[in-house]
Amino acid sequence: MEKDLEGNPHWYDLQKGQYIQGLIARDGNERRVYVVTLEPEPEDQQIHSRWPRVVQNGEKSLINKAY
Fold it and tell me: Which residues are registered as beta bridge partners of 38?
């Protein structure tokens, strides 16, 4: 869920087998979640300047392609 400039909530609809790409980082008892974001489509730019990257189940990571 993301809030637009006016504070209205917008949810990201996912289908079965879709996930928001992110990273869970741990340091002792502290945990953080980092979400991979992209520029939104033009029709969604009024909601927010970034959009979560949605991946499909079984999709290869871009990181693996770099090595």
Answer: 51
